[in-house]
Amino acid sequence: MINISNFKIDRNLDPIKQNKILVNFIQKFVNHKNLDDLLLKLSKIYKIPKDNFDQDVKLLIFSNYRNSKGKFLSKYGFIQIFNSFFKYTLFFLWLVIFSKNNKNLKTKKYDLIIDDVDHPDTLWRFKSFVNQFRSHIFVTTFKPVGESHYFWDNYRGLDRKISLNHFLKALVLIFMSLKNSLIDRTDYIGIIFTLNRKIIKYHNIFSKIQSDYLIQDRHFMSSSLKNYIFKKHKGKKTLLYQRNIAQLNGPGMYTCADYFFSMGNKTHIQYLKCNSKFEKIFPVGSFFMNSVKIKKNFKSEVPKFDLLHIASNMNHFQNTHTTFLDDWYEQFKWLIYFKKKFPEYKVGIKGRENDGLRKNKKFMNLIKNSSIIFVDIFNDSKDKSFKYNSRHSYDFAFEAKVNCTWQSTLGFELIGHGKPCIFLDPGGRNIAHLPNDNYHSIIKVKSYNEFEDEFFKIIRNNSKFSNLNTDDYCINSNLTHQKIYEILNKN
Fold first, then answer.
1. Is the pTM for the entire model greater than 0.90?
2. What is the pLDDT of residues 216-269, one digit of tens each?
């Protein structure tokens, strides 16, 4: 028996070693006989090849791992077995009660489905891209005005005949899951329950709307199981565009899609190290930048800085080793020291509204009385149509003389568009995001002296960034949406 509750990683190990230990453990856990038997039963009941569950189960297990603690949450413990059994049973009863007798509903066909839309900003990001298709539809958790959408109402109103069928299948699985869970004193019910919910959701959605292509915004919501069901309902390819720098034991782990549209020629490599799976990879530039910067129909008038740090608050999933937060705070001390040494330069830190930085007392105390300008809220009087505040990070960064960051994806986007961005890595230990290889090391500095030296080299136009193949980090994004559309037409 593999006891997930007792699993713990030594956080003194570097993130690469930690990742190997974690990935090996998750693989063993998924292959354990009693869980494997349940997955095989689920496969037979729904006639879905078992390997289509693999990536989803691994991602589900991983999502309950906490880097900051080096262990899993107690979600799969013995007590949780009974909670999951209760929730599982109630869910299927609720599913039948709130189902409807749907008759003669015709399946509607589109060229493109945009899945997992839970905020109006996502609609805006896809605005330019979807206009290239003859027809499209958003799968949303809200009801947008003036947009073609399929409203997913949290399992309400599903077809009663289908719901009853799922209920009978669930009865078989739930008791088998209970038995195996009690034997191993590990909650397998929650895992099977999550997979079952996903099967029900996407069989219902794709039986009502079909398309050639399926695209989504958030990597951690990608699913090999969803991909399979989409294709069972006459779909061709699932699509995913790169929005973040992949992190070992963090965002990017166990991502999957048929076509992955990367920002640069080499930015996909870290995803493959994170056990992501793609059929084909196409470097096209930044989809996100194309949406929120290039397609914006006005120019924001923002303050101009000599040195600008693109910042964001750090969460539990980014905290990969014992010195992570100490190193993160250290880079801000570099900015403070730089400002004291060179008071004539205007230094700023650009955060995002509600990202938590303002609530971080240690951060706020560090920059207090430092003459560094902290900006996380910016109101542009010209902006009437787009409320996504972090778009101004692009505007601030392109106006700054020199940019730096800890690990922002914007750093790669800037480099690709001819704007050097220094990645600050005190001690060179932030290797979960930026390994100490030739590709990443050339854009990093590991000490204050290196940082100061690189700043003035950029000012004098003789920095190491001048010798980079910028397409390796981000291809010019002016035509990213069009490039993706053309690739789909060719393939």
1. yes
2. 989 989 999 999 999 999 999 999 999 999 999 998 999 999 999 999 999 999
Which pLDDT belongs to residue 384? Answer: 46
Which two tokens mark 79? Answer: 């007590």
**Spatial contact of 137 and 110, defined as CB atoms under 8 Å apart:** yes
Measured in residues, the chain has a length of: 491
Which amino acid is it at 189?
A: I
Contact 469, 409 (CB under 8 A): no
- The tens digit of pLDDT for each residue in 113-158 reads 999 999 888 898 898 999 999 999 999 999 998 899 999 998 888 8
β-pairing, 402-405 vs 373-375, is: unpaired
Mean pLDDT throughout 389-418? Answer: 90
Query: Percent of the chain scored above 70 by pLDDT?
Result: 96
Q: How does pLDDT run across 435-474, given as a tens digit for each residue?
A: 999 999 999 999 999 999 999 999 999 999 988 999 999 9
Nearest to 253, CA basis, from 245, 261, 264: 245
Amino acid (1-letter code) at residue 219: H
How far apart, in whole angstroms, are the C-alpha atoms of residue 314 and residue 432? 14
Cα 317 from Cα 247, distance rounded (Å): 9
**Local confidence band at 386 (pLDDT 50, 70, 90 cut-offs):** very low
CA dihedral of 100, 102, 106, 111, whole degrees rounded to 10: 10
